[in-house]
Amino acid sequence: MNKFKTLFVMQLKEKMNLSFLNSKKQTLFKVVFGVLGFGVITAAAYLILWLCKYLHLFSASGMIPLSVITVIYLLIFILNAFTCTVGLSKTLYYAKDNQVLITYPVTANQLFLSKMLVYYISEIKKTFTFAIPIFVAYGVLSNFSILYYPWVIVMLLILAAVPVLLGGLLSIPANYVIKFLNRFPLIKVALLVVLLGGLVFVVVKIIGMIPENINLIESWSTISKGVRVFLNWITKYFYAFYAIAIFLCGKFTGLKATLFTDYSWIVLLVLVGTICTLLVLNYLISRPLYLKIASRQFEFDKANVKRNKLNLPRGKGFWSACYYETLRCIRDPHVLSSAVLTIIVCPILILLQNAVYAAINTRLSGDNLIICFNVLIILLFATANNITVSSAYSKDGDALYLNKTKPNRTYEVLVPRLVFNFVASIIVVVPACSIFMVRARLTDVEKIYLLLMLMFVTFGHLIWSADIDFIHPQSNLYKREGSSVVSVNELKSTILAFAISILTFGVTYFFLADARKFIWLKLCVIAFVFMVVRIWLFNYKARVLYKEMDL
Amino acid sequence: MWYSQLSLLAGVIAVLVGLFFLLKSKLSTKANLIEKLVSIALAIVFFVRYFLSGNSLLDGVMELNLNNPFSSKFLCFMVAVCVWLRVGTLVALTIFPFFKQYKILANYIKTYGLFSAALNVVFFSWSIYALSGSYGWSAIGVLFIIEQALSLCYSVYVLCTTNYYHITKSEWIEMAIALPIVLIASISTYLPGVFFMNKGNGLIKGFKYYHRIYLYIAIVVLLLLYFLLRKKDDKEYSRMALLFISLCTLITYNYHYDFSVFVNPRSWPMHLCNTAMYIVPICLIFKTKGLYYFTMFVNIIGAFFAMFMPNTSDSSGIFSTGIVLFWINHIIAYAIPALMVLLGVYERPKLKNFIYSMLWFIVYFGMALLLNAIFTGIDPNNPTDFFYINSDFIAEKLGKSVENLRDITWVINIKGITLTFYPVYQALYFVVYMFIGLGMWFVFAWIFQMQDFYINTAQKNKKIKLDELALCEKYNEKEINKIMNKDSLNKLVVHGVYKQYGNSKYYSAQDVNLEVKSGEIFGFLGPNGAGKSTIIKCVVGIQPATKGDIEINGYDIAKQPVMAKQQFGFVPDHYALYEKLTGREYVNYIADLYGVSKADRDERLNKYVTMLDMTGSFDNPIRTYSHGMKQKIAIMSALVHAPKLWILDEPLTGLDPTSIYQVKECMKEHAKNGNIVFFSSHIIDIVEKLCDRIAIIKNGQIQTVTTLKELQTKGVTLEEYYLQIINDKSTPPRMKVGDENKIKEEEKVEKPAKVKTKKVKEAK
Q1: Domain co-membership, B323 together with B395
Q2: B437-448 per-position pLDDT tens digit
Q3: Whether pLDDT at A260 is above 60
Q4: Which of A333, B192, B412, B435: disulfide with B319, CB 3.0–4.6 Å?
């Protein structure tokens, strides 16, 4: 038991990064921000639910029915099951710490269970940041009794075990499928083509289904009815989830909900039964395979690929670095897939969005909102593509460390790594922007300014993401956990991506709402200044701090 | 009438001039104290006069052509200018003796102040009319005459006692930057409207165009003042500048406050941001910590919210008095307290300070609560609403549910006065504000972190530039890319190098001195953690040395990194390669970085690929390589540009015997060609067979540098010699950071002592 405890605590500390517990100030900081974050998410969920209530979207009385909660919980569950499958497959079979853990004098049981338990704890943390705030907001909006809150929190924490256990089971076939696809790249490509083709087909189909004229006000009752029909369909075909929703929130009689009924005990019994069954299945199926699969991942896969046999100079230092760094990015499936996905999905989404907008009769404020939402979507995608840059230097680790001994200037080392993402950003922004501009009510000059603005903002974020990684490299984390782990730099870059996109959306909206002269020129200048400032800061920090950079 | 007033003015000036001569001859030692007393007297006279001006015609004067009390527009304009200019002069004269060390104040008084005082003396009679409403005698008139006489004489006194008009070019520039700031800070709230002819009716709310412009101004003011004062890097100077600005704005802010206003407590400036106008100068004058942290945690955020959601009327023009007053007030309330801590006038807050600030907030909140209830109880038709906790102004903005909370009331009747409280709403208001204050703490922590980071970076940048300049100067070179020290040509010279990692208390390497010449194979030995890799990292530029110089073939690695790195090739103790490239791609990449021609790289790569037995796998991805193969690629990439110096850190670890032999052959050949091979290793046998000279390092200090021949003549094997040194118990431990200075000081102290002993001996 002691060994299990040590294993568990050791891994938990590593995964959850509990170093803040050593400092009172940091602990207070964490707690306060945790509470504030919880409050913000709850408030956001409350706002959305309140809007739905206000618009009478789900029922004539405006009340939010349990079927809505069923859909929300179903979505959370599917998402969790998927992330748990992928996450557990990495944690159980591909984690770098397996190399060390396997050699410890512990049983496979202890190792497997400790890994599952650590993962479950991290899932609990996730539940606090997503599911619980939504349920709390729903409780506030529906005036539930005070007992509802502790009940729903405890039950959601127990329910979080289901996707983890399910993920544990599904990770085995998922692991085999990944291995199979890696072995036969042609099948992998074919599958990808089929998937993308399917996606395009669905988009085209959806665009075709959009009526030529959408009048939201006139057709509101039809939309509302459609929503209710969909909700009924969900409760009918996903009854188990509806039952859980009743179990969590209580049974409604009129506008009042009764929390504990006989029904609750039956669901609780079924739930406990399901968890026990999954536990047993995990123990019987996953655990014996765990050690076998985990140890096999470290076997070398000797490739016998012959490449270019010429010693070709690729230009002077900087240009050569650009060439080889781009080559490395293209050969990195993580970076490449992120870029390719963004390049494909962004224009499709913009196309779909604008097809819907085109069918709606809008006034000036509506037109402005359409422009702003297009700006937001394009920026969200383009900046999301930049997130990989926030770990670019850290993932290079010692190799970049060695680069410090080479006779090149700081920018010659740091900038070439950004070329791939820079080009990818252009490929994301230009087509997406062109699609949206076809229907946008803007002059040609305004369109150019808009395109430039989007470019500048994207590049500004790209440089900022690189800056984050270069100032606080996370090489040790990647050396320890492998390149698939999400570092704090990537998290920062993601937050920045959201913040910058939303800020640009807000600023664009305010400028458009004011309807003054030279709106696009001003926006373009602001974006340009932002980019220049970021480039200057990057260059300045690189010049001064690069030699102290400790990887 | 004005003749008699002029006589009084002349009389006061005469008395003051007489006092000046008396001061100079009899009381010169107490000049500073007397200056301070005069400044305080001037301030008192001004404030009494200022708050007496009840029935003034000044509004008409400041609005210029709207309600002009004079027959001439020029006269009206000049009186308005006098009012404007004398604010800055008065503040400068008041604070002058307290900040005498800064010449800008004296220069300012000698130029602008003297001009303003003279102008006010010229127009004194009309000013008295504008202030008191008549040309006749009045208390305001007499006080004004004393005030102007004092200002003029004091300005002349400053001129006479501070080297007259000797002002340097940089001082003129400093004044030219300060003058617009003073003029803006002391401008009457009427004047912007007058200057812009009351144009512009845009809304200053809802993030509309003009609201945004005003917000930009608020941000620009903060940044501008921060960077201007930061450049000075002097806390006391910042205090002086901020005090100057806050006093000027306080005077213009109080333009409408006279005794009649202060007699009526309902009109007291008890709104949070209004209180800041008074608190800020008090904090700057008296350095009151408790009060300052109150303003830091409570006022800044309050003013910030107010600027984002201003309660200005929809009908006010963008330059109207109300709007200008509102923005001056709020910019001061948020910017000055923020600048006070950012510029170091006050220390960064600790938890204790936050708690004290919240105690002040409790006092303020309780007072506002009570005064609101009492004043509203006395006159329910004219409710008082300090801090907006009595009305539904905020509740209305937050929605029905908050308004419902405000409906819960608590009513007390005391002697016919009904006191109404809103317990739930007001308690919630208090708690939320407390939490916002706590949130501010974290926001400030983040800002401080950023500030520290950028200041440190700027200092480092400055040091880099200064070091480069110093190096050029030392060797009389104009360009940094030239060979500086000709004595270090074809050598590796390590001179007095110390290395401290991060905030470690101990040096990882200390006082390291080495010189390796061309044609040598130099071995670097030492136990694990002795400091071998640290020295090598410093030599190759992976880590900067904390102290000392490293020169490679005449180039300094710290100050001329690019040129110095061109001179060597490095093989690290661990393979660190780009795994997604093939071996050939990687080596070609490195060859490109060193600018190796195609012919050279073809020749060298063919040679090394064959020599290191990599023919079959050179074109495979590096990720498929074994440890030894990766090490060979690292060796090839280090030699592809035929470096003058080849540095290897534990190069033989993990290599098979054939590979070890191949690497050894490479090293011998490289040294034979007139180059330097510098390598660290634990394998003593190999070092003994391969090296010409060796150094042994222990506890971060070089213990010995010797040749192998020397050891042979002594009849000692390298292994025995190594163990003897490593096991020597008398080796001093690692040096604590800072101890090297102590040692130097001790040496300095010891030297005279020796001389003394010598002298004593001689005397004997």
Answers
A1: no
A2: 888 888 888 899
A3: yes
A4: B192
DSSP result, B528-551: TTSSHHHHHHHHHTSS--SEEEEE
Contact map slice: A 18-37 vs B, CB within 8 A: 29, 32-33, 36
User: Does the beta-carbon distance from A404 to B589 stay under 8 Å?
Assistant: no
Mean residue pLDDT of chain A comes to 83
Which pLDDT value is given to residue A424? 93
Interface test with A, best of B585, B605, B614, B648 (most A CBs within 10 A): B585
Give, to the nearest 10 degrees, the angle between helix A444-471 and helix A419-439: 150
**Average pLDDT of span B115-136:** 86
Query: Each residue of B202-258: pLDDT tens digit?
Result: 778 888 888 888 999 999 999 999 999 988 889 999 999 999 999 999 998 887 777
DSSP B354-396: HHHHHHHHHHHHHHHHHHHHHHHHH-TTS---GGG-SSSHHHH
Each residue's pLDDT tens digit, A177-226: 877 877 777 787 788 878 878 887 787 777 777 666 666 666 777 777 78
Reported ipTM = 0.77
Rounded to the nearest angstrom, the minimum Cα separation between A260 and chain B is 29
State which residue of chain A sits closest to B207, comparing Cα positions: A510
Q: Do A306 and B598 touch (CB under 8 A)?
A: no
CA B28 to chain centroid: 39
Please enumerate, as own/partner, the contacts of A359-366 that have beta carbons within 8 Å and a separation of 24 or more. A359/A210, A359/A211, A359/A212, A359/A213, A359/A214, A360/A213, A360/A214, A360/A215, A360/A216, A361/A213, A361/A214, A361/A215, A364/A515, A365/A513
Mutation target among A32, A329, A406, A508 for the B interface, most CBs of B within 10 A: A406
Alpha-carbon gap, residue A210 to B407, rounded angstroms: 49
Is residue B214 in some structural domain?
Answer: yes
Count how many domains chain B has. Answer: 5
Q: Would the CB atoms of A408 and B442 count as touching at under 8 Å?
A: no
**Domain extent for B27:** 1-186
> Are residues B570 and B688 located together in one domain of the fold?
yes
End-to-end CA distance of chain A: 37
When scoring A309, A394, A402 by the number of chain B Cβ atoms within 10 A, the one with the most, hence best to mutate, is A402
| Same domain for B498 and B354 | no
Axis crossing angle, helix A444-471 with helix A488-514, rounded to the nearest 10: 150
Residue B475 belongs to some domain of the structure: no
- What distance in Å separates the CA atoms of residue A231 and residue A329, rounded to the nearest whole number? 45
* Residue B463 domain-assigned (yes or no): no
B661 and B530, same domain (yes or no): yes
- Would you list the domain boundaries of chain A? 2-176+228-296, 317-548
Per-residue pLDDT tens digits for A90-110: 787 777 677 677 777 777 778
Can you give the pTM of this predicted structure? 0.75
Shared domain check, B399 and B546: no
* Residues B713 and B750 reside in one and the same domain: no
> Do A540 and B455 meet the contact criterion of CB atoms below 8 Å apart?
no
- Within a domain: B456: no
**CATH code for position B689:** 3.40.50.300
Are B332 and B370 contained in the same domain? no
* Dihedral of alpha carbons B554, B559, B565, B568, sign: positive
pLDDT of residue B753: 47
Structure tokens at B128: 């008295």
Same domain, B392 and B315: no
Q: Is the pLDDT of residue B757 over 60?
A: no
Domain boundary among B407, B439, B471: B439
B598 touches chain A (CB under 8 A): yes
